[in-house]
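Hi F.,

I've been meaning to write this up properly since the lab meeting, where we talked about keeping a consistent format for the predictions we share between groups. The idea is simple: the sequence comes first, exactly as it goes in, then the structure tokens exactly as they come out, then a line or two of notes. No screenshots and no reformatting. I'm using this chain as the first example so we have something concrete to point to.
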Amino acid sequence: MPTIPAKTAKSAKTANAAKAARKAATSTKRTARAATADVPALSDAAASRFRRALHAWYRANCRDLPWRETRDPYRILVSELMLQQTQVSRVLDFYARFLERFPDLDTLAAARPHRVMEAWEGLGYYARARNLHALAQHVTTEAQGVIPSDPEALRELPGIGAYTAGAVASFAYEKRAALVDTNVARVLHRVFAPDIAPKSGPGSKVLWAIAERILPRTGKQTWTHNQALMELGALVCGARAPKCGGCPVSKQCRSAHSFE
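Output, unedited:
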């Protein structure tokens, strides 16, 4: 078998790598175009009507929850991690007790792991507690004790995904940042995009694109907007029995007739 010169082999390897990179880039662009194509057309006027109705409803119907009374990023982060896959009614007592024991990031960072787990015991999904403890230690040693305000920087921290990053950025720092959790996804899916598969990869991208599209112009308004979306999903647009008669955006909802 003839020997292939090293230079030629290297050139072929480089060419193949470049070809693979071009193919991957093309695939990514196609996926992005497909997701964008599935995003329903939404005019500025329609988005504005949706926001006005939603925000007015929230101001009249929102629950009095302790994490809505603070802009402390640590306390908001604790609440957001506790609320993942857990009902508000269960979180309320745990939230107060946990903060009494670990009132700030430094106290939590200095705690023994077993003490943190003891304070979390009974709430379940214990990886959340481990991630919160690791985050506290990382921020106190690597970030001068300051939880970042930028969603992308937040996502670099242990246990922080896209939703939690958006929640901390908008609720603690009043940043103009979108968020999509289970409740928000259900609202956006029913109102704007009932034809997509919301739990699929492409469907999730569509919902995030809609969430970005309907954001208010300012971060202060975004605080109310994101809280209102979550509250609507929790109190009105339920998974099993949506209360369409009391929904502030039912006139715009493309799924309202399905529940009549």
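Notes:
The CA atoms of residues 86 and 124 lie 9 Å apart.
Residues 6-38 form the longest helix (33 residues).

If this format works for you, I'll send the rest the same way.

G.
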